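Appendix C: a fully annotated inverse folding record. The material below is reproduced so that readers can follow the format used throughout the book. The structure is listed first as tokens, followed by the designed sequence.
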């Protein structure tokens, strides 16, 4: 039984491949016109194709089949409402001429439509592009220039339709390229680069859809349609120079003081710089506010400001950028941090026993702290020393003997005069040149 099943599957596979080969061998060849025809729709499932030709007078369609029992037909509405078409036969090739634009053509071998392939012809030369008085819309009827823009004008470009074999009238969309200059932010170099943005739009929504607002003054070019590019009759229509209003702003803060790191808490006094990078000359007005404990201290103008924070407290620096017409503004920038007088200064190395009285203890510098506690650990996590008096430090000994040279680790916990608890961790390098060292067992 399994043997017969395998033979049955094999026979059906041969039949299937034969059907595919027969279908592929019965393809249409559209030729003629003043320019090379263009296949724009190829629906293999429905066995339906749409060709654009440029000039219908000399266009012909050929059909290859090993069967001479076939007949050509054409339809205008649907395939069932057809009429016969005369063809010429040369070998296995059947050809029809004197075709009409706006018709579908097909061949039937026998009386079944299931074997038919359909091809619809559109004479592209009868649908010239006609877009007049193109401009970028402004005013109350236009979208916000901060975000997008819309094109205005008169689009008289005719639409092209085809009928599927089952009689569905369908629009063949004509796509246009919409290109205009804009800017692209390059983070690595902190600058804007001029680029050309290319978008697309259909003929049916060219004057209805919105496009991303440019970041610089530019004209807008509409090129197309894309079928015209194939026939080498592409056109370009341009607007006047459009004055941009959209903004792209990138804010940055920087600590200028040495030995200070950016974070929620910064030690006073600290010099800081705030910078706004924007697409000038569209960006024209920069406004900064420095707020301390909820009260505005200063308002400053300019794309970059420097400020020294001396008093402790909570600060918020805000920034906003406006375009030259004051229509558009950037998303507000806000940077909040604490400035404290509490300070802990930690050295990175000391040399016990090397030069008595000179950097021979690990001690911190401090200011405005209420409580303090510190620990020293070796690389295995073994505690070697701890102390709670910030005026004292570690002499580099463990159990009365100097530890070997190398890196050791500290943990420091302290409370500032503002009541805030803090913690610092890091490593301290012990530098020794004498041989009177001990080896600490893990």
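Designed amino acids, in order:
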């Amino acid at each position: 039984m399994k043997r017969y099943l395998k033979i049955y599957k094999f026979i059906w596979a041969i039949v299937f491949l034969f059907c595919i080969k027969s279908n592929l061998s019965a393809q249409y060849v559209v030729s003629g016109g003043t320019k090379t025809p263009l296949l724009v729709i190829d629906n293999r499932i429905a066995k339906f194709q749409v060709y654009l030709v440029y000039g219908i007078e000399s266009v012909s369609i050929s059909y290859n089949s090993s069967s001479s029992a076939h007949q050509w037909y054409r339809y205008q509405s649907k395939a069932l409402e057809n009429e016969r078409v005369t063809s010429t036969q040369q070998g296995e090739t059947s050809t029809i001429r004197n075709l009409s634009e706006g018709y579908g053509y097909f061949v039937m071998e026998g009386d079944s439509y299931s074997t038919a392939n359909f091809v619809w012809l559109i004479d592209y030369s009868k649908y010239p592009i006609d877009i007049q008085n193109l401009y970028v819309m402004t005013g109350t009827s236009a979208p916000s220039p901060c975000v997008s823009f819309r094109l205005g004008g008169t689009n008289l470009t005719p639409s092209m339709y085809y009928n599927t074999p089952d009689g569905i009238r369908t629009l063949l969309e004509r796509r246009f390229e919409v290109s205009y200059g804009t800017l692209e932010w390059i983070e690595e170099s902190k600058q804007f680069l001029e680029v050309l943005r290319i978008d697309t739009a259909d003929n049916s929504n060219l004057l209805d859809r919105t496009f991303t607002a440019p970041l610089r003054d530019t004209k807008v070019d509409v090129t197309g349609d894309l079928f015209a590019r194939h026939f080498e009759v592409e056109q370009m229509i341009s607007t006047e120079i459009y004055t941009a209003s959209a903004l792209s702003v990138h804010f940055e803060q920087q600590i200028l003081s040495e030995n200070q790191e950016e974070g929620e808490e910064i030690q006073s006094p600290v010099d800081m710089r705030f910078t706004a990078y924007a697409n000038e000359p569209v960006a024209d007005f920069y406004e900064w506010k420095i707020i301390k404990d909820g009260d505005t201290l200063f308002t400053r103008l300019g794309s970059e400001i420097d400020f020294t924070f001396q008093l402790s407290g909570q600060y918020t620096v805000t920034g906003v950028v406006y375009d030259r017409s004051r229509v558009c503004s950037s998303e507000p920038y806000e940077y909040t941090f604490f400035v404290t007088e509490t300070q802990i200064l930690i050295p990175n190395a000391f040399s016990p026993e090397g030069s008595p009285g000179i950097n021979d203890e690990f001690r911190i510098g401090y200011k405005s702290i209420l409580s303090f506690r510190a620990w020293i650990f070796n690389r295995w996590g073994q505690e070697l020393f701890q102390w709670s008096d910030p005026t004292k430090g570690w002499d580099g000994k463990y159990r009365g003997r100097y530890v070997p040279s190398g890196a050791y680790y500290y943990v420091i916990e302290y409370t500032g005069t503002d009541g805030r608890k803090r913690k610092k961790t890091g490593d301290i390098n012990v530098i020794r040149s004498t041989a009177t060292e001990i080896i600490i067992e893990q």
